[in-house]
Amino acid sequence: MRDYLDGPHKAARDVVRAELAAHADLAVRLPHDEYRDRVLELLQRSAASGLPARGFPKEYGGAADLGGFIAGFETLAFGDLSLMVKAGVQFGLFAGAILHLGTERHHKQYLADAISGRLLGCFAMTETGHGSNVQALGTTATYDEATDEFVVHTPTPAARKDYIGNAARHGRMAAVFAQLVVGGENHGVHCLLVPIRGEDGSALPGVTLSDCGPKLGLNGVDNGRIVFDQVRVPRAALLDRYAQVDANGNYTSAIENPDRRFFTMLGTLVQGRVSVGGAAINASKVALTIAIRYAAQRRQFGAPGSSEEAILLDYRMHQRRLLPLLARTYALHFAQAELVAEFARVFDSERDGERDEHDRRALEAQAAGTKALGTWHATETIQQCREACGGAGYLAENRLATLKADTDVFTTFEGDNTVLLQLVAKGLLTDYRRSFGELDPLGTARFVAAQAVEFAVEKAALRPLIERLRDAVPNRSDASDPDAGLRDGAYHSGLLRYREEHMLSGVARRLKAGIDAGIDAFEVFNRCQDHVIAAGRAHVDRVVLEAFQSAVRDAPEEVQPVLQDVYDLHALSTIEAERAWYLEHGRLSPGRSKAITALVNDLCATVRPAAPDLVDAFGVPASAVEVPMVVPSQA
Amino acid sequence: MRDYLDGPHKAARDVVRAELAAHADLAVRLPHDEYRDRVLELLQRSAASGLPARGFPKEYGGAADLGGFIAGFETLAFGDLSLMVKAGVQFGLFAGAILHLGTERHHKQYLADAISGRLLGCFAMTETGHGSNVQALGTTATYDEATDEFVVHTPTPAARKDYIGNAARHGRMAAVFAQLVVGGENHGVHCLLVPIRGEDGSALPGVTLSDCGPKLGLNGVDNGRIVFDQVRVPRAALLDRYAQVDANGNYTSAIENPDRRFFTMLGTLVQGRVSVGGAAINASKVALTIAIRYAAQRRQFGAPGSSEEAILLDYRMHQRRLLPLLARTYALHFAQAELVAEFARVFDSERDGERDEHDRRALEAQAAGTKALGTWHATETIQQCREACGGAGYLAENRLATLKADTDVFTTFEGDNTVLLQLVAKGLLTDYRRSFGELDPLGTARFVAAQAVEFAVEKAALRPLIERLRDAVPNRSDASDPDAGLRDGAYHSGLLRYREEHMLSGVARRLKAGIDAGIDAFEVFNRCQDHVIAAGRAHVDRVVLEAFQSAVRDAPEEVQPVLQDVYDLHALSTIEAERAWYLEHGRLSPGRSKAITALVNDLCATVRPAAPDLVDAFGVPASAVEVPMVVPSQA
């Protein structure tokens, strides 16, 4: 199973596993600055081992193996997460900005040093006043024709760069996102390379650096603030892949529409989102490995009169708390593997000069959705694991506390999850609008009529009747097993697809109706914002489910049966969690809904004996999971 | 509103508020041992201000005002939670054990010093191997007739006392729970006072003390471990209110049944549970005050073309995330106030020599249930608040991170929440069994028949039809308002009561059927453990709802309208969260279920303008909520 989970990038993962085993001591808390410096040391060691180089072109010392790069990076999440995040800032965001937004000149000058960790950098996008709405950043970069320089400036306190990794202590240079003003005209947000610290580590003139101070977690990362007071950089500092300014102060860009240009540049974020989603899923694996091993050996209470207490993992409630989360971790693992493969494919094509806008947008939506679900999943899973281990789970030595604190920010950094799900839904609605747009008037009418009929059917509550008939006569040959239909993959994806499509069309209808009624556009959107976000989530749920289905189909014979059980547990607990919606929309009868809950209970019991093996298959290095509360001999 | 929320113990709350304002600097993290010593200093200052004395009899320097004691203690949760927990260990658990389990001799010798903080103590109950199942503790206290002493001993590594507050650094004495062995016979768990540290702070002979090390939070509390190696204490060390050993080695107890004796002694825990529940609810108030003030001033995105961005709290999704939690915080506040009043009443009666076992059990169940819901609510609320404040919420300076880390253990200490809800359900089932027991055969038959008929009705799905008819013809005179029936308090409590009773009777039926079928008792219980816990929760949900209803009824006229809106939001979002169950059981039609969701959205918008005032009414001291991310002038 472990080989199957590791997939094509096993080698990259194993390199990082070995590395993590070598610095297992990091989970112990060090004093603030010592901890930060130790993480820097590990970052540089990691650079020397060639991990980050995988993600970069061969001409700058790289190996041009994007999939391996991401897989290795994700694997870092088995260890100290400060190292993972600092590596993300340095190699993913800072070096990534140079690679993706810069041109050959920048690549030649900086990439090798950035990849090796000799040039430490920041990704200075977020400001105190603007986190999600990046288009409204306040920092300015104004072209001064007289000196052929850009003047980088923080005009208001809200425009201060904030939460910037590497800024408080180690960063020498920053990729700064600022409103580019040329000849008095604002061309929107662009990125420039701005030196911030001298060789001696002190801030350069005009640059004020400060420390964000202690955080809930990730205290090995030196997050800080940057204020610019009329800092001058040469014109060449502009990362000019998508827009150029010449010596005469002429601004040019191959992308005329400023919005499209902005979102194209923002596309650099996709790699960060892919990585964070993967890291979150891997952090969940660490927590589940610890909590399930603990639950498989810990005894408490038990049958009256029995001399031995019962094992925690044999309690139904304990199974209910941990095993559906284990199943969802498997589901997300396979969805993430699909995403990484697609990421590598799209970026490899682009490197070969073939940029497909539709593929790019689809990739960005898939990355946003997987990041949102993966990081929320990590928060929920680690919380459940902590509670399932009681007081022992609260001690730093048992790692769950540290994992919880370190991963908590994942749900809001690299894009706030609610904003990301909106982005997913908006992408889908755009496709919707396109299908409206491409239809002739008659076609549109038919399209709307089809929706209306569906609606009428629903209102008449015929569907529950149909469902009941189906309950009575299972559409499987094995009529002796009343659950047969419930474990049918086509039934699961049918339900999830129905939900996704119904929600999206519902949102589309509500938006259209609101606009037609002349209501203010913001108000129209806001009234169905919860609906929009739920639709985005329904879409990602379906994508994740189908990724798991493919993985079961493609699995080697020896792991297929157990993987099928885990899949069923995931599918049915996903449907169970949304059963209110299905009941409201006549897609589940009350009886069938209860049968699903009963089957989830049964599947928990079915999966339980395999649970220790299922977490072993994650291949988390022993150094990360052998904690005092889990007695090694029994683990 | 604030006066109404403060209720009868306003004075006690205000004393603590003033105290907290005086040491506002504590939110800043200090190095490990300095932090612990600073918390001790504050604890002693707090003792000097008379807060803990309220909870103790007048003859030992107390004020015999239990309600004021708990209210003041809860209010400590507005400040640094390490102080609150350390105070809980010292005054609630350690001094509480002496008061409730000891006799006059112990009171005279120790109480005044314990209350003043001169004698620092531990409550050494939990062991490495036994947290929830206290009855199975491994530590022994064996009576040695030859020397008239008890020998306290840790026979196995699993019997080590663990997570004990005050053990790592400050405690001089411990209230140790151990199996009491007299004349070779084990009489079950009893409590003894055992000195653990000398005047110079070093461990006494035979006592090994160690540190639990860093924790997710509460690092101002010195949790540690204690191992006893044949430590001898005089016979008088036994806290002998409920059981005595005389100089001839005769064990006597007025409570003959060992189980009943054990649970009577365990009753000392009720005060801790009442306090932790209240502290958790107050910690939620701190988080909501910060997050709602932030959301009421922070702008992000907005209408296309508009020059100003929209305020976060005007977004539906943001309202959805925060306002139902605000409403539930109000609900829990009132439920907690009822609990504290009942706690004071029961304990005052007992002090006057009137112990009512039924009242005591009911109080213990109510405390367990409110503690479980209140602490899970805190975890959920603080998490939502943290996410709703993005990166800023992750910085220690903005307090949400600290709150989250510090409160996290509340769900599993002072009784694991799932175990506590089981306790609630078992209490209710005992009452059930009693009503079976008290009925004659005919009565029992009728009772069962009534259940069966109800079940048949449900199966025939007649109820949804009835519900639909009711939807069509609202049973209110104001037929122009289709939501009229949905805001009817009797309708809400009817639904919650139905759910509670249906679940309990379902559990009873399943248990009975399993036992009748000859299945192993543990297996029978385990198969419906999730059902048992859900029934416990349903009960507490109903109790909380009805407490809020009473509070609205009794509220002064000027706050009643807004309180009514907040109540409706709480009631309907509670029903919404469980709507799958109501749909499955034919108590909501799909249409009505959707109408509830729509009304929750509307109520969020209704409550939103009052939200800043509603958090102001919590009266959290400015020192606890004026954080950098909330601009004071706008707060």
Task: Outline the secondary-structure elements.
The structure is a homodimer of 635-residue chains.
Chain A: H1 2-6, H2 10-22, H3 32-48, H4 66-75, H5 81-101, H6 104-116, E1 121-124, E2 140-144, E3 149-153, E4 161-164, E5 173-182, E6 185-195, E7 207-211, E8 224-228, E9 231-234, E10 244-245, E11 251-252, H7 258-266, H8 269-297, H9 316-351, H10 357-388, H11 390-394, H12 400-407, H13 417-438, H14 441-459, H15 462-472, H16 489-516, H17 521-527, H18 529-554, H19 560-577, H20 579-584, H21 590-607, H22 611-616, H23 622-625
Parallel strand pairs in A: 1-5, 2-5
Antiparallel strand pairs in A: 2-3, 3-9, 4-8, 5-6, 7-8, 10-11
Helix pairs in contact in A: 2-4, 3-5, 4-8, 4-9, 5-6, 5-8, 8-9, 8-10, 9-10, 9-18, 9-19, 9-21, 10-12, 10-13, 10-18, 13-16, 13-18, 16-18, 16-19, 18-19, 19-21
Family (chains A, B): Belongs to the acyl-CoA oxidase family.
Domain Acyl-CoA oxidase/dehydrogenase middle (chains A, B): 122-231
Cofactor (chains A, B): FAD
